[in-house]
Amino acid sequence: MPKGPGNKSCHNVRTDCTAPGLRQAVLDNLYYVSGNTPVTASAQDWYDAVAYCVRDRMLKAWNEGIERITKALDLRAVAYLSAEFLIGPQLGSNVLALGIAEPLREALATLGQDLDAIVDGEHEPGLGNGGLGRLAACYMDSMATLGVPAIGYGIHYEFGMFTQTIRDGWQVEMADKWLRQGFPWEIVQHEFAVEVGLGGSTETFLDAGGRLRVRWNPEKRILAVPHDIPVIGYGGTFCNVLRLWSAEAVDAFDFGSFSSGDYGKAVEEKILSETISKVLYPNDEPYQGKVLRLGQQYFFVSASLRDMLRVQQMLGKPLDTFHTTFAIQLNDTHPAVAVAELMRLLVDGHGMEWERAWAVTTKCFSYTNHTLLPEALEKWPVELFGGLLPRHLEIIYEINRRFLEEVRAAYPGDEGLAARLSLIDEASPRSVRMAHLAVVGSHAVNGVAALHTELLKTHVMQDFAALTPQKFCNVTNGVTPRRFLALCNPRLAACITSRIGPAWINRFEEEIGKLEAFADDPGFQAQWRGIKRENKAALSALAEKHLGVALNPDAVFDVQVKRVHEYKRQHLNILRVIALYSAIKRDPGAEFSPLAVLFGGKAAPGYFMAKRVIKLIHNVAQVINGDPDVGGRLTVAYIPNFNVRVGQVVYPAADISQQISLAGKEASGTGNMKFGINGAVTMGTLDGANVEMRQCVGEENFFLFGLTAPEVVEVKRNGYDPRAYAATDPVLGQALDMIASGAFSAGDREIFRPIVDNLLYQDEYMVLADFASYMHCQALVMEACRDTARFTRMSILNVARLGKFSSDRSIRDYCRDIWNITPELG
Ligand SMILES: *Cc1c(COP(=O)(O)O)cnc(C)c1O
């Protein structure tokens, strides 16, 4: 007999949640799954053993979840279609949901292992760019916690979001091969693989009943293989699934080429097929009109709809009740081709009448718009679209023909209106407007914050809003208080629980307000500050280790972490830093309370200006951090590779949250909410969800500056001249001059010229217009920070009054206003 891991006990190693049971389970996995003993195990082996142990304990809820969707005839489930799911590290959140942290910690301690170190060692799946993908993940968490049956459908990218490294101040991208070490949370479901066609042509034929039908003969077929990741709700009883599709060749080999000796050609097909799910496009806001991207979108959408139709048929329900089984949410326009694909499946595939299929389709779909930037609205040239999806282009033309007929009937003679509403942009090159397809094909369209929805209705989509006002509604974004408070800030979570009990974790909106009673309690305030200081010390330790920058935990931590984009205005922030630096240089003896200004975020690899802003921040940091006149009172640091994992350390350590986009540009933001529920006070513009956050926390607990959205329009209408601001504001003029003169580039006047010139001669995002207001606000912030009791009160009230920004509230809104689903829990 081989000497096994010594399972002499009666513990069920798959389900037992006591410390001895968990200990035995970890040892069993170590031995039987990864072929190790505690002596030979690497850190990765320990991680895998613990992950499988936790996964086992999710499987009961997981299997019940799959049964729920595939057995219940009268149940409506959400299908959340998203090209991105930025789910973050899995071990910690699953342990939290199951409530087994303490026994697991104890079990691992007896094996000489530290649960926190194992949790912190996880490499996250970076299957999203930023806010949009993270929102999808928060919504999956909330749906599982509230008991809303749901499947998340997306893409199993082989390479996720690139890893950002910094060399000499410049961003350098490295491929993220996240599956290198395996991913213990997924189960591959080969039996549910489906074939997806691409390219080719269409033909008409008469069916057996003598009806004219259309057939698509794709040139190419790709196999979509589902990878299922469980999403377990808080409490551990309700589990949904995230189903991500990866592309494989239908036939691995072309046997003809193989037998004729051309091995290379034989595997060519395989390589080509697999490129579909190879890589996440790293562009956050502007879309990229690449044919492979459209291929990715269609690939996952087609596989997902066919998967849903399989469930419908397995339930034995007729196809014209498909909308009673699934509410399909389109997360932005990335999956909007689903409207045409469902029509094709119903009409071509199942011979349904067009009108009936259209009724089913529009009752299924609803669409979330995420952007106000015109360059981010997806448009595909019809030639490219028709080359890849010839049948879908025909279907879109037919949808458009019928739609414009209705428009012309309602507004006779208004050809301008018809042209503006058309699914086809007739300007050269003619292209398909994906947002229009999504709106026409959906029964509900939502913006993601009150201001954003208003701007959608009055500007971006005003013609649609006039035509079908009942379709438009608002669902303000939210974030999960599990990951972004309970998990990432355990000290603050315990402190909150000690005062108001633990119910806030899954009843955040209802419970967190109870904290307000302690806002002025000196003992509570001291505890609150102590925790913030510990969180800052933890971030400092990380910065010291990875950057060699010493951050003083007694300084005010002022943080801007998010994708780098001109509309988010990291350059406004660094201009402020330069102005503060100049003030210190002018009078080094004057009092200046310690301030640490932290940045983090990735730039799209092809985004010239964003990459140069990253370089500028690094150069400014080098000068300021090394200047003896400053003496460590002002420090600047750039935290590389901002992702969910890094965010979980950064959000809890912030005193001030920078949310400084030009009003009218940020749809909602969710980073603002994560900072807020961790006790950071916002310094921000009236943009996105900042507006509602300020209403909730009270204007005295929010540092407001900048133009409002209507003022932005007004100033631009009167002819915005940024140079006038630089000429009349000496502080601004001097800050710009310092950059231009090479003060941060060893005399090099060229390197940052593109930034300075852009600001002086274009400044699309009105950095110079908002600068003075920002500096005035900065003075108020510094004054408030010096009054410890006042600032602590502001911090506590931010947490206590942000209950609305739980993604549980957002999901309840979707359930009530859009999906017509009643959550089973809570
Ligand atoms: C929340 C989050 C974002 C979104 O941040 P915003 O400030 O809303 O732009 C981006 N990236 C990551 C990793 C996040 O967790």
Keyword list:
48% helix, globular, single chain, binds pyridoxal-5'-phosphate, pyridoxal phosphate binding, 826 residues, ten-stranded mixed β-sheet, Rossmann fold, Alpha-1,4 glucan phosphorylase, alpha/beta
- Briefly, what CATH class of the largest domain? Alpha Beta
> Helix share of residues?
40-55%
| Beta-strand content estimate | 5-15%
Spell out the CATH superfamily of the largest domain.
Glycogen Phosphorylase B
Bound molecules: pyridoxal-5'-phosphate
- pLDDT average, as an integer? 95
Question: Would you count the extended β strands for me?
Answer: 23
CATH architecture of the largest domain: 3-Layer(aba) Sandwich
Number of domains: 3
Low-confidence stretches: none
Radius of gyration: 28 Å
Structural class designation: alpha/beta
Shape annotation: globular
The largest sheet, given as strand count, sense and whether it forms a barrel, is: 10 strands, mixed
InterPro entries: Glycg_phsphrylas, Glyco_trans_35
Keywords: Carbohydrate metabolism, Glycogen metabolism, Glycosyltransferase, Pyridoxal phosphate, Transferase
Function: Allosteric enzyme that catalyzes the rate-limiting step in glycogen catabolism, the phosphorolytic cleavage of glycogen to produce glucose-1-phosphate, and plays a central role in maintaining cellular and organismal glucose homeostasis.
Family: Belongs to the glycogen phosphorylase family.
